[in-house]
């Protein structure tokens, strides 16, 4: 019994330390990129020594892969939630809102992912061509069924998804530019409320069947 309790405590401690490492790594990779980040910086951000960090992750690439994996899993949740049984325009409206909220609340994940894609996705191409493609294909089939049933105007579902990714993630990846153009006095809530209104008015209007 005592040994089992010790194992559980050790597991909780491991999970907590791994979480601290990945959170620190996210900040540093998002700011400096993979090449510019160092294990010393990640360890310092996690509040531990470099040898302790290496006990959990043997190298920078393993940490980077883990951060990207966690990021991609989180980033795909809004698309996973698109319900085939739901009302199409309401489902897409909900997707827009969830994606914008993720851009607002978790901009570093978006920037990290964008940086990896711009670099040619050397470490996650297999995921893009596997897990990501499978999910997108699944949701494209859902959208095509809605179009076939006359519930949405006919559009290419792949490009619809690409457009939603581009517009929602713009507010995370290019926040400095958005603030510069709108004026820094425009607060975050107003920026995202305006983005949401625009997307719902323009995108959803274009998807309504005639």
Class inferred from helices and paired strands = mainly alpha
Helix content range: over 70%
In total, the number of strands is 0
Low-confidence stretches: 1-7
- The rough form would be described as globular
Strand and helix order: HHHHHHHHHH
Terminal Cα separation, in Å?
67 Å
The multimeric state of the shown protein is single chain
- Total domain units: 2
How many helix segments?
10
Give a quick account of the main beta sheet: strands, pairing sense, barrel closure.
none
Radius of gyration: 20 Å
Provide the residue-averaged pLDDT.
90
Determine the strand fraction and express it as a percent band.
Answer: under 5%
CATH class of the largest domain: Mainly Alpha
**Named CATH architecture of the largest domain:** Orthogonal Bundle
């Amino acid at each position: 019994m005592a040994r089992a309790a010790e194992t559980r405590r050790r597991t909780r401690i491991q999970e907590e330390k791994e979480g601290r490492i990945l959170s620190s790594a996210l900040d540093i990779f998002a700011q400096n990129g993979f090449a510019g980040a160092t294990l010393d910086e990640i360890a310092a951000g996690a509040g531990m020594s470099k040898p302790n960090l290496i006990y959990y992750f043997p190298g920078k690439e393993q940490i980077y892969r883990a951060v990207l994996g966690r990021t991609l899993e989180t980033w795909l949740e809004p698309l996973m939630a698109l319900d085939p049984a739901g009302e199409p325009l309401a489902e897409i409206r909900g997707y827009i809102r969830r994606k914008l909220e993720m851009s607002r609340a978790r901009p570093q994940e978006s920037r990290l992912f964008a940086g990896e894609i711009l670099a040619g996705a050397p470490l996650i191409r297999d995921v893009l061509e596997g897990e990501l493609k499978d999910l997108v294909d699944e949701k494209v089939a859902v959208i095509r069924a809605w179009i076939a049933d006359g519930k949405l105007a006919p559009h290419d579902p792949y490009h619809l998804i690409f457009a939603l990714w581009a517009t929602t993630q713009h507010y995370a990846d290019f926040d400095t530019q958005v603030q510069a153009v709108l004026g820094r006095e425009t607060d975050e809530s107003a920026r995202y409320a305006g983005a949401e209104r625009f997307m719902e008015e323009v995108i959803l209007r274009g998807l309504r069947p005639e």
